[in-house]
Amino acid sequence: MRFILNRITTLLYYSLIFPFYKLTLGSLHVRGRIYSPLKIAGRRNIHIGKCVYINYRVWLEASPINKDTDCRLEIGDGCNIGNFNHIFVTRSVILGKNVLTADKVYISDCGHEYTDVSLPILHQPVKQLRNVIIGDGAWLGENVCVIGASVGKGSVVGANSVVTRDIPDFSVAVGSPAKVVKRYSFEKKEWLKTNEEGEFLETRL
Length: 205
Prior knowledge:
The chain is mainly β. Helix content is 11%, strand content 33%. The model has no long low-confidence stretch (mean pLDDT 94).
């Protein structure tokens, strides 16, 4: 029964939903799947690769602050984007291949300005931060926020962490702000604890 339901769902997706996304997005691979999104804005600036799964109630937006500015959201081959994710782009957010995000993850290359205390933050402009790259094979845990920073390939960001500084390749980072607590040692071929500077400690896991 489940097999039949899956076949019907797939048939409906490719006959009714996929053609609309294919026409309106910047690019969408034929094996990219988008399930019941909350919102998709700036569609022409959004590029979705092969075997990408974008799950329930995800908000994708790629809208430049200035009309003349390039803006791109790229989700690489094999990515799995969890439920209720929010990815907001004003210049560049790129997810590499096979990135996994848990539910309720937020990724953005911008933030609200708040320097003018005479104005509500709601009425102040969006402030451009740095471009964001989530490296190949990275994993972002539940409720993670990545704001104007990048996460290296093969790295893990623990649940509820806030990333505001770059995380190196093959690292584990936790906290708010997120700090590296482990890195993979290719010399010893194992994950080892680090200090705040990212230097290996002698203690084995």
